[in-house]
Design brief:
This protein is mostly helical. The chain has one domain. Helix content is 71%, strand content 0%. The protein is built from 13 helices and no strands. The relative contact order is 0.22.
Length: 326
């Protein structure tokens, strides 16, 4: 088995686990506020995050080198966490994924002012096509635009902002700082909101929250292993396999049927995202590789970020620069 095939298989398993994780989120979301779900998700993730933090031998303090960028990343991660958990709770799984898949398109746009990235005509066209796909999924004027749709869009934007900030300051900030601040602030903010939304948790639901934390951890570990094994251009698009799991899980557990606009819109978004990945993986004008070099899940501030795990492990995804027009 080649290294790329092994990496792709590991990534497919990882995203299947992430999709199962989201089924538990959606199930709990029918009974509990996203603030409560996020609170316990962070709380139960701390022991796993601590194990990861113990591996960071880089000297220094926990004071950010770039406090304002860190504050922006933290706020974006907190907003994303609540928004994505709420979106999964009220929208069909496939529709939520389709909107979240727009994140790479948004990151490409944000890379221009934040990273000074040069985005040329072909990638601009891919971004515009992808945004058309989002409109196809949302169907403005034909369906009611709900708070769930707004939450999914907020999650896509927040996750994109958090990701681009990591690209901006990641080389100078300690991974432990980038990891810890969103988790701690998420915990504190959700703790303030918790008394207003708290419902007692039976032991089986507490167990489901523990499963969410463990699945997020296992999925992240497998994604890191996938990037260690294969090329980023092969591994990154595997995240789109989640739409298949969304169709299966949505039908089996929630009686959801994917309608034609969602299928068409998701296909357009995925095609544009894959095109951007392939262009960037071949380009020598995109030194920051802002979109999918270590792409996996939207940043929620509830679990350790995959790219930070890779930095701690000393893993740099393979890239073979070639001339390109971007």
């Amino acid at each position: 088995m080649s290294s790329n095939v092994r990496g792709a298989l590991l990534a497919l398993i990882a995203f299947a686990i992430f999709s199962t994780h989201d089924v538990f989120v959606k199930t709990l979301g029918a009974s509990y506020s996203p603030f409560q779900i996020v609170f316990f998700s962070v709380l139960l993730s701390f022991p796993l995050a601590t194990i990861m933090l113990m591996r960071d031998a880089k000297p220094g303090t926990l004071v950010p080198v770039h406090p304002w960028w860190m504050a922006l990343r933290t706020v974006a991660a907190v907003i994303t966490g609540v928004s994505v958990f709420y979106a999964f709770s009220v929208l069909p799984l496939a529709q939520t994924y389709a909107i979240l898949f727009a994140s790479p398109l948004l990151i490409t746009v944000l890379a221009i002012p934040v990273l000074g990235e040069r985005v040329r005509l072909r990638r601009w066209m891919a971004v515009l096509v992808g945004l058309v796909g989002v409109l196809v999924v949302l169907r403005p004027g034909q369906t009611e635009f709900s708070l769930g749709h707004l939450a999914a869009i907020a999650a896509a934007i927040g996750g994109s902002v958090a990701s681009i900030v990591v690209r901006k300051i990641g080389a100078e900030e300690r991974p432990v700082v980038i990891l810890l601040y969103p988790m701690v602030v998420n915990f504190l903010v959700m703790a303030v909101a918790l008394p207003f939304v708290y419902k007692p948790l039976p032991i089986e639901h507490l167990g489901m929250l523990a499963v969410i934390a463990v699945f997020a951890w296992i999925g992240s570990r497998l994604v890191v292993a996938a990037y260690q094994a294969g090329e980023a251009a092969i591994i990154a698009p595997m995240q789109y396999s989640q739409i298949i799991w969304a169709a299966i899980f949505g039908m089996v557990f929630f009686d959801e049927i994917i309608d034609r606009p969602t299928i068409v819109g998701a296909a357009i978004i995925i095609a544009s995202g894959v095109y951007i990945v392939l262009r960037e993986s071949r380009s020598d004008v995109s030194e920051n590789t802002p979109v999918l070099r270590t792409r996996s899940r939207s940043e929620t501030g509830t679990t350790p970020r995959v790219s930070l795990s890779m930095r701690m492990a000393g893993v740099v995804p393979p890239r073979r620069p070639k001339p390109s027009d971007g």
